[in-house]
Amino acid sequence: MTKKASTTGNLWLAEELWQLDAIQFGDFTLGRTAVNSPVYINVRRVISNPKVLNRCARIIRQELETLLSMRNPHVHPFTLVCGVPFGGLHVSTAFSLDSNTPMIYIHPPAMDKSDVIEGAYVRGQTCLIIDDLITGGGSILETASTLNDAGLVVRDAVTLIDRQEGGREALKAAGINLISILTLEQIANYLMSAGHIEEQWYRRTMDYLERTGQR
C-alpha cells in the first residue's frame, strides 16, 4: 500500500513528476555523463499538465525573489531570460509569462542556426538561463558561451532538477551560479518515503550518487 508523505517545500514537484510517469527506474545511459544510471527523469512531461508547468514558473519566480531580497543576494539582477532547447524552453516561456520578463533562446546545436539568438536584446544585458534538468552542465555552458559571444552577461542559471552529476561544479568553474528546485537525492528520498518505489531502487540511486561523488 502506498503511504502518504508530506509534500512540503518543493517536494510537490517530485510527486507531480511521479504522477506524470516522468520518473523511471532501470538501467539508463544518458549522454556522456550519466552512465548506467538507475533512474531517468523526463521533466519535459510537465507540459502535459499546464497547472504543474505554471506552478513551476511561480516557484522559480518566488525562489529568485527570495534570493534577490537577501542582504547578501545569492542571485544577480537580470533583465532577460534564456531557455535551453528543448526542455528549458517550456519552463522559461512559462516563467517569462509569469514574471513578465523578456525571453530569448538559441537554436539547438544540431541546427544550422545554432549560433542565432531569437528575440530582442542589447549588448551588456544580464541574462538568466533556465533549463529543466542539469546533468553535467554542458547544455547550459554552451548556451552561456553563445550568449557571452553576443555581448550578454550570464551570472546565474536555474534548473528544476539537479541530477548531482557534476553540473553545479562545472558551472561554478565557469563563474555561473546554479539555483535548483530539487536534487536527485531529494526526489529519491521522497519517492521512498511516499512508498512509490521499493528500497532496492532507493539504495541503487544512493549508491549511484556515491559513485559519482555527488552525495
Q: How would you describe this structure to a colleague?
A:
- This protein has 215 residues and is an alpha/beta fold.
- The chain has a single domain (12-211), classed as 3-Layer(aba) Sandwich (Rossmann fold), CATH 3.40.50.
- The protein contains seven helices and eight strands; from the N terminus they run H-E-E-H-E-H-E-E-E-H-E-H-E-H-H.
- The strands form two sheets. A six-stranded mixed β-sheet has the order 5-4-3-6-7-8, with helices on both faces.
- A hairpin with a 3-residue loop joins strand 1 (23-30) and strand 2.
- The protein is globular, with a radius of gyration of 17 Å.
- 36% of the residues are buried.
List the helices and strands and how they pair.
Blueprint: H1 12-19, E1 23-30, E2 34-41, H2 50-69, E3 80-83, H3 87-99, E4 103-106, E5 117-118, E6 127-134, H4 138-149, E7 156-162, H5 167-173, E8 177-183, H6 184-193, H7 199-211
Parallel strand pairs: 3-4, 3-6, 6-7, 7-8
Antiparallel strand pairs: 1-2, 4-5
Helix pairs in contact: 2-3, 6-7
